[in-house]
Amino acid sequence: MIHKLQKFGCLLAMLTVLLSGCTQDVGDGVKRDVTLDLEVVVNNGAFSNPSGTRAPFTGDGTFEDPVTKGEALRMLRVIIIRYDDGDQDKPVVEHNRLVMMNPQTGTPLNDNLRFRIKSGEKKRIYLFGNEDYTRCEKIPNSNGFIYSSVYDFTSNFPEGERVSTAKLAELADIKISRNPGEAVIDNRYLANDDPWGYVPMSEFFDLDVKAPASDEDIYLKETFFITRSLIKCSFNFYTAADYPLEGASIAAVRIDGVADACWYLPKGVVYNPAKDDVNVSASSGREITDFQTPAGVTFSGFDYMLPPDRDTEIKQGLDLSYSPLVYLPESKTPADGNFTVSVLLKDAGNNWLTSKPLQIRELARNTHLKINIELRSTSIAPVVTLLPYTGVNLNPDFGI
Predict the structure, then answer these.
(1) Which of 33, 46, 170 is nearest to 114 (CA)?
(2) What secondary structure does DSSP assign to 116-172, as a single string?
């Protein structure tokens, strides 16, 4: 199964390297300082009303813009690791900077995103977005467990210090977790003064910063992207022409088989086109053809209770869309498991109607899963689509 990254999750980090003036001539092979300008360009599009219930169901194969500020970039941490001529097993933290962003515009609020770095070396550049919503570490307390909200990037990666490769490996092992049956982020019922939850994002890139060999090498430009680490789901309910039952209402919809944790950074991700393909614009998006999830991860469901003020009565002509602002971990089902969808009907015995297994086995990060559920006379059939629209009908009938 191939999942395309949507434009709504493909933020662009435009990285421009500008060589500063110095006493040596260009081309003398000296490893001089260069100035790195990092510009984060967020293609936000227009935000829809956060209280709305429907994201646009488009079928043109294009990528999707963020529908609320919770899907935009609020803060960006840039960690630059330099591999110098010293101990290769202990590279240097060249920069570790947290920058606040305007989620509406994608522009920095407190920084010019300019970094002075050494040339003639290989770098690894980590981009972490919205780190304060990672819920990364499970800590026992008297009530069971609580989550710490942030991995301590600052104290673990102090600027100018050497860090071990084992310490760097910690970055790849940061998890985003949820309690079973809960969401990582739920922005459905926020009051005016309630803080938004912002979807965590991340990526890393390797960059070989050459010492300038000629005047043409004074300016070096690189384009990076950052990817949302979570998934979201939307639902559309409609009735078949022969649907006979009226009076019952839809109370909730459940998706089951979702992982309770995922990696913060992409791990084992295979992109198509490749992440380092210089002939592909970052804004055009990439497909995720494979990815890894934490070993031993547990799985649970999530119940999307429909708002009580919505008219959810099942009747002829029903066309009900629900796009909750809820975000869950990316998931691969275990060998003996599957994703399923259930619908709770009230005023008709309060029964959960559960689907046969969906014919998808993985939901990659940055995926918007759209499920169109047809209420038939003898069954309920969801048609599952992963954005951008592929037009693939998976026909996972409900077994009733």
Answers:
(1) 33
(2) EEESSEEEEEEEEESGGG---EEEEETTEEEEE----HHHHS-TT-B--HHHHHHHH
> What confidence tens digit (pLDDT) does each residue in 269-299 have?
988 778 877 676 655 567 788 899 999 999 9
Reading the block at residue 136, the tokens are 């990364």
Taking the mean position of all CA atoms in its chain, how far away is CA 160? 30
Q: How far apart, in whole angstroms, are the C-alpha atoms of residue 175 and residue 259?
A: 12
- The string of DSSP codes covering 167-189 is HHHHHHT-EEE--TTS-SEE-TT
Angle in degrees, CA 281, 287, 293, rounded to 5: 125
Q: What is the pLDDT of residues 206-248, one digit of tens each?
A: 988 888 776 666 666 666 788 889 998 888 888 877 776 666 7
Cα distance from N-terminal residue to C-terminal residue, the chain: 27
Percent of the chain exceeding pLDDT 70 equals: 66
What is the residue type of 310? Answer: R
User: In 3-state terms, what secondary structure has residue 341?
Assistant: strand
Tell me if 128 sits within 8 A of 110, measured CB to CB: no
Helix, strand, coil shares of the chain, percent, nearest 5, are 5, 45, 50
CA pair distance 400, 398, nearest whole angstrom: 6
Beta-sheet pairing, 351-354 with 340-346: antiparallel
Q: What is the spatial distance between Cα 177 and Cα 297, in angstroms, rounded to a whole number?
A: 10
| pTM for this predicted structure | 0.81
Listed residue (66, 360, 81, 388) closest to 228, CA to CA: 66
Q: By C-alpha distance, which of 251, 249, 254 is closest to 233? A: 254
**CA-CA distance, 213 to 53, in Å (whole number)?**
56
Say if residue 103 is preceded by a cis peptide, omega within 30 of 0: no
